[in-house]
Amino acid sequence: MKLSILHDEYFNEPTRSELRALEAEVPGVTVVYCGQWDLTCVADLIDSEVVLGRIPPKMLKELKNLKWHHLASAGANRFTDKSLYADPSIILTKSSGTFGIPIAEHTLGMMLSLSRHFTDHYKNQLNGVWRQSWPVTYELYDSNVLVLGLGDLGTEICKRLSGFGCHITGFRHDPSIPHELVDEVRPISMLRESLPYADYIIVCLPGTDDTMKLIGREEFHLMKERAIVINVGRGFIVDTDALVDALNNNLIAGAGLDVTDPEPLPPGHPLWYARNVIITPHESATSSEVGKRRLVIFTDLLKRYMNGQPMYNRVNFELGY
């Protein structure tokens, strides 16, 4: 069986030792790897039964032998339309379980930075100014936190929040499924009635038609003035224009964004200059350990695939994630 591994600026090339370990664990697999930018035609992938990496969507229809496509990302945007593939029974999986830890730590860093005004202090430090302005600061302890999405990202975030003594309400597609790390699980339909009590709103939902602009002007008007919004899900889940207005008009206390809409955020966009916002360029998932975790998960899935066993991390084409 031929396996192709595509690497790009998002998915770094596996090391030789990592590839040798993969081949040793799954005998009978011929591994070919190349950069996505090296793909000059479909012929580079035409014989592959399995591909790990982001195949250019325009190529998918030509890959008649492709049975399983594993995404290097946790999101499946652009790949959830079955008509893109030559084989309607295609298996599509994603790398959930790879990024939760670094994104959770990134999220906590944003929450603490915004609550303690670290960015303002850093600006004073750069200017060599000792300025005690005594701004209003907030504690994570005893705060009410809404975590929108209880997958890998949401679960890892809840693990870390539990050590701060937060009261956590989690939101998921099926609220009947319990979650041991939250005080209550609610459906997304209860978001608006929950917002007036929230001190922090953390968005880690997948990007789908149902989540587009889930948080807009009406939602911001329901929030506390001390509320802080963190988005590590998808940029378009939060209405950007409404967010800028909410920040600049003091409807909320601040926002931490690792994703934006549009993305990348163009120079001169009003969001760059909004009050009390931290923006990072969609890099919360990066860490020295991510590549290792991704290959561990993929190797386990590959063994399951070869042995005809059930596979996890499968994308639901109807739900879009």
Description of the structure:
The chain has helices at 16-25, 100-116, 118-126, 152-162, 191-194, 217-222, 240-248, 290-306, and strands at 2-7, 30-35, 50-52, 68-70, 91-93, 144-148, 167-171, 184-186, 200-203, 228-231, 254-257, 277-279. It has 321 residues and is α/β, with parallel strands linked by helices. The protein folds into two domains: 2-98 and 287-306, NAD(P)-binding Rossmann-like Domain (Rossmann fold); 100-279, 3-Layer(aba) Sandwich (Rossmann fold). A seven-stranded parallel beta sheet has the order 8-7-6-9-10-11-12, covered by helices on one side. Helix 6 links the parallel strand 9 (200-203) and strand 10. Helix 2 crosses helix 4 (152-162). It is elongated and about 65 Å long. The model has no long low-confidence stretch (mean pLDDT 94).
